[in-house]
Amino acid sequence: MFRYNLFIFLSLIYFFVPGASAQNVNGVVTDSKTNEPLIGVNILVEGHGGTSTDLDGRFILNLENGEYNILVSYLGYQTKTESIVISTDQIYDLSFMLKPSSRELDMVVVSGGKFERKITEETVSIDVLNVELLQRTNSVRLNDAIEKVPGVTLLDGQATIRGGSGYAYGAGSRVMVVVDDMPMITADRGDIRWSSIPMEVAEQVEVMKGAASSLYGASALNGVINIRTAFPGSEPETRVNLFYGITDNPPREETKWWDYPPYEAGLSIAHLQRFGRFDLVLSAFATQKKGHLRLEDDNIYRVNFKTRYRPESIEGLSFGINGNVTYSDEGEFFFWENASEGAYIPSGSEGPDSRGTLYRGRRTNFNIDPYVTYFDSRGNRHSLRSRIYTLWQYYSRGGYATASIINAEYQFQRTFANDWTWTSGVGNNYFFTLNKDLGDNTGNLSSIFTQLDMKIKDLTLVAGFRWEVFNLNDSLGASLPVGRLGLNYPVTRTTHMRASIGQGYRFPSIAERFVETDVGDISIFPNPDLKPEYGYSAELGVKQSIAIRNWSSYLDLALFWTDYWEMTEFQIGVYPPPGQPPSPNYIGFRSENVSRARIAGFELGWLGEGSLSENTDMRFYGGYTYVYPADLTADTLLAKGDVFADRFINDFLVRNNENVDGLLKYRYRHMVKADVEFDWKQFTFGFDTRFYSYIENIDQIFLIFIPDIAEYRENESRTGNWVFGLRLGYQVNDMINVRFIANNILNREYYIRPAKLEQPRNYLMQLSFNF
Predict the structure, then answer these.
(1) Which residues of 636-645 are buried (b: 16+ CB within 10 A; e: fewer)?
(2) 548 Cβ neighbours under 8 A, 6+ residues apart
(3) Which of these, 327, 440, 466, 627, has the minimum number of CB atoms within 10 Å of its CB?
(4) Are 147 and 139 in contact (CB under 8 A)?
(5) CB 629 within 8 A of CB 664
């Protein structure tokens, strides 16, 4: 099937993409300040099509004799125009130096269409974390970074966007994580190994909210987290980051189990350099952490490299190999011993060497990523990317496991004269596991996709389609087509309205279907009959840009609606084998299809920067998210639109205990994220806050079998939890920065997931060099 799709796709490209003609206009586009070449600049010839710059900032136009107006535009830069006259046999060499635009806060993102576009012109909600914020908050792990994004939380390592996921305990992510255009989902659990993401060379983190399966495939049911890592500039660059942090005593003295404060120490180094036409990025990261949860200690060591070569003999061609090796020895805390003196101790751990319900594993994951990119003479981009991603695991209770995935994707992209962009491709994933808990499994996922991004005057339209065929253990698992539609229209120069609807799906991971194991006294059971989950998400939004004197900002309001079918949740229950009667021996967790679910809400975001005085600058970022997560199977009345709307509105500020059973479990209906930062001369002062409302619904059997949960929830604040942080930085010189960071400064006792308390007040010192 994959070969057949590839043959058809390449044949279409061959017949419908025009060939090259004589070259008579050559040009180059560079940054006016750094003199670095700009890649992907739009070169439009009025009434005669256009092209884009290659990896060296060069372009070629094929024009007949005559007079032409050339428009040069690039996101984040001022547009330039030039008129030329072409005569017979004359060759023109043009040079454009673009100046960065400084009036409008308008970031460039690639997640929506796999090409660069202004965030104000996107048809879906996308949040961006830039490298400066990551460095200033010491976000050395990706999960630390995305916790700052409005509407995003992590429950036991699983990302959830706007309430799209509940408690999954490390299996079956509904959020796709993409690093340099390739997915980073494991073959066995279908989850994310956060420790393997090279944050020391991250250039930008983009979080796209809502179903994105049409462009990114399975596991993008709830959204996409896209990490773009850096390439070298014209000058070599070395980054060094050292940090050391300790945890303060918890607010209740009886819960303190340690004699010496839990700590974390770490170091990262990155070097970026260009050697002629060869680009090289090398980085390394190491950390040792003694966690505030007993025995949940982490030791992580990571090496990453990235290369790119542009041969002079073939214009527009580049290729390279990227790679990453990460070793981790990590503990995963399941639930506490009790809510009093054992709140930070895993249940069932007797003595210093007993782990109880704490799951511990040593893992080595390795990926190697060969790729080729070619810009032809018409400005079309051809990209062939691949990734071999292997995970070796050694379990604390004994035994080894291997999970591998081989991913390859060809992508074609063309920008037409009317500023339309067509992106299409084919892909194939082959995966296998060797695991005593999961058994030996093999599978294959083949896909073909296309998306057209259209510009009709000021209106942006997006239409996409994807078809994937999934096979597991030589049997057809599923064959699902999905689509996507979106639009964006500037009502005024500073007000952009958008609307989108997209389908999504997720095939159950191998772990969800076949895992059979124990974590301490807790059993985890398989569910081989688990079905794929699917659904759609719709959004209406408005983004208002505000530029006043030396201030640039925007407000963003989004209304969202998501429907799921065969939604999968990790639930406690009694699961006897076929033919066996129920008994206490079969109490445990497994993944279940809870059928129909509906999640709706709204999100208000804000982002901006500006100057308060000659020496004082300010930056702010944050948002408020309201979610109403309805379980239409548990309460069938909610399937009626008027009933759902009534509860959505009436339960907004007042919690109605009578409606709790109709809510999806382990969700926050109200969430606030905010970060404010000031620069004064060489000092930087930052403040951040997070608010999580009370989790209204959890598994009832959880209340019975987990120690003290029922009593703890009775005494827990029903108004939610505010958590605050502070940071202070000092720039010693152009190369050295010193920062002090304090998190949870009020020493709030709270949890993201019941029976697993978050870190008490903690302090961290950071010393960074950039030269």
Answers:
(1) eebeeeeebe
(2) none
(3) 440
(4) no
(5) yes
Alpha-carbon distance 362 to 298, whole Å? 10
Tell me the range of 1-10, 226-235, 559-568, 737-746 where mean pLDDT is highest: 737-746
Pair of tokens at residue 441? 């499994």
Q: Are 225 and 178 in contact (CB under 8 A)?
A: yes
Helical (H) or strand (E) element with 338: none
Strand partners, 555: 544, 606
* Residues 195 and 202: beta-carbon distance below 8 Å: no
Structure-block tokens of residue 385: 């990317």
| Residue that is written with structure tokens 């719709």 in the block | 538
Q: Coil, strand or helix: which one is 136?
A: helix
Contact 751, 724 (CB under 8 A): no
> Which residues are paired to 45 by β-bridges?
70
Spatial strand order in the sheet of 80-86:
50-52, 42-45, 66-73, 80-86
Q: Which tokens go with 131?
A: 């490298």
Euclidean distance between CA atoms 400 and 361, whole angstroms = 10
**Amino acid symbol at 44:** L
- Asked if 284 contacts 266 with a C-beta cutoff of 8 angstroms, the reply is no
Measuring CA to CA, how many Å separate 246 from each of 148, 243, 260, 288, 373?
21, 10, 10, 12, 46
Partners of 482 in beta bridges: 466
| CA 189/CA 172 separation, integer angstroms | 6
- Is the Cβ–Cβ distance between 429 and 472 less than 8 Å? no
- Say how far apart CA 700 and CA 172 lie, in whole Å: 23
d(CA 666, CA 672): 17
Compute, in degrees rounded to 10, the torsion defined by CA atoms 248, 250, 251, 252: -140
Q: Under a CB-based contact definition with an 8 Å cutoff, are residues 529 and 488 in contact?
A: no
Contact at 8 Å (CB) between 636 and 596? Answer: no
Please state the rounded mean pLDDT for residues 307-329. 92
SS3 content of the chain, % helix, strand, coil (to 5): 10, 55, 35
DSSP annotation of 196 = G
